[in-house]
């Protein structure tokens, strides 16, 4: 055999590379601090290798990459928010052509309707959790949005606000709360004068404030925004306004949960539930995905924040059985699965946590592989010897230890 066959069981690959290094089972066992019997069982497939630390120790003794031991040709995947990409977004957000009244420059100015379609495409890309693609799109999209607004303020106003919104949403995912704050601040300022646009932008503001650790401020701002958009007679209000109001109440509830205020959390989620019953599931007004299912999932997330992992699991199981679960955006479902995995980890159930994280990875790989929160959770679960083997292998392939 000239090289290790990638189709071989991992135990056979251990035996192959041990032979290549001219190590007897006893010598190999001694270097690992294991018994010869343990090595023999591993090589025959009687004993599973499902711990990251053990795989790394074997690879070190055999002087090979862990990925080779797993039978893969793997290039480690880093977090997509590379400095140059984030700096391009920062540069685009730092332009002041609009307030300074600068001309659009030599680049072609997109018509407002075409710009609007490109912003919609960016939102769709976000909701499918295609973050690596979106991070390359945003600098150009922001520049185009600013040029179009400068040339056509009336037509370019709304797409500009939504371009800032989707930028803030992505930056929260990438863990850059500071830059996300700049983007959402731009959105809020640009939206001034339109109560609907302000409310839509405030959804991302709530996410940014929570990510920045300003839970109390987030709750206060979200309540002000929610009650500003709240219709005087909810029973006859249009779905889009109800969705914005309900989503802002969810953001306020999550902030209250982060602050440890369980009574305010429950009260706000009850208010959101009443609005969701009128809206129903399967709609996505203003890219909120608001409805009864989203409120149920928010209850699970809030329970995790409040330290009640058992109740979080109950809400998770209830939420995913709803018809509305399959209608939610891919990003929304995968992000929730990560929250549910956290709940299981808090109950000391690493296997169930790993199973849910693996499901999140199948649903939207970027949520686990490129989002810092997902990678951190992956590392925590993989360090537990009870974690599923798939999680162990994924952590090794991503260089997450």
TrEMBL record:
Residue intervals passing through the bilayer: none
An MF annotation (GO) of this entry: DNA binding
InterPro entries referenced in this protein's UniProt entry, alphabetically: Cro/C1-type_HTH, Lambda_DNA-bd_dom_sf
Listed SUPFAM superfamilies: lambda repressor-like DNA-binding domains (SSF47413)
Domain HTH cro/C1-type: 14-69
Protein name: Transcriptional regulator, contains XRE-family HTH domain
């Amino acid at each position: 055999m000239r090289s290790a066959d990638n189709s071989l069981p991992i135990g056979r690959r251990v035996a192959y590379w041990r032979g290549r290094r001219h190590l007897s089972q006893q010598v190999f066992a001694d270097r690992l601090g294991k018994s010869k019997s343990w090595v023999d069982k591993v090589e025959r497939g009687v004993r599973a290798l499902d711990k990251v630390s053990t795989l790394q120790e074997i690879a070190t003794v055999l002087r090979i990459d862990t990925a080779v031991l797993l039978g893969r040709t793997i290039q480690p995947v880093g977090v997509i928010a590379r400095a140059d990409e984030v700096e391009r977004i920062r540069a685009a957000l730092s332009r002041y052509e609009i307030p300074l009244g600068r001309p659009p420059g030599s680049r072609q100015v997109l018509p407002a309707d075409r710009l609007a379609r490109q912003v919609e495409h960016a939102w769709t890309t976000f909701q499918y959790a295609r973050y690596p693609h979106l991070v390359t799109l945003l600098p150009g999209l922001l520049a185009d949005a600013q040029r179009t607004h400068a040339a056509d303020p009336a037509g370019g106003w709304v797409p500009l606000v939504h371009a800032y919104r989707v930028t803030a949403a992505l930056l929260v995912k990438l863990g850059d709360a500071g830059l996300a704050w700049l983007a959402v601040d731009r959105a809020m300022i640009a939206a001034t004068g339109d109560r609907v646009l302000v409310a839509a932008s405030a959804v991302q503001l709530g996410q940014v404030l929570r990510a920045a650790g300003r839970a109390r401020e987030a709750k206060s701002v979200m309540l002000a925004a929610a009650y500003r958009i709240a219709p005087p007679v909810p029973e006859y209000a249009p779905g889009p306004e109800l969705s914005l109001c309900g989503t802002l109440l969810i953001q306020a509830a999550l902030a209250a949960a982060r602050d440890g205020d369980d009574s305010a959390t429950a009260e706000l989620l009850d208010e959101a539930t009443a609005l969701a019953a009128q809206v129903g599931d399967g709609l996505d007004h203003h890219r909120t995905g608001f409805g009864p299912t989203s409120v149920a999932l928010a209850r699970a997330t809030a329970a995790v924040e409040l330290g009640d992992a058992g109740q979080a699991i109950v809400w998770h199981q209830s939420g995913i059985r709803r018809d509305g679960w399959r209608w939610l955006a891919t990003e929304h479902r995968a992000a929730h699965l990560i929250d549910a995995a956290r709940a299981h980890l808090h109950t000391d159930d690493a296997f169930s946590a790993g199973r849910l994280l693996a499901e999140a990875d199948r649903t939207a790989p970027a949520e686990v592989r490129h989002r810092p929160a997902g990678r951190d959770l992956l590392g925590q679960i993989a360090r537990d010897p009870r974690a599923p083997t798939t999680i162990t292998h994924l952590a090794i392939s991503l260089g997450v230890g």
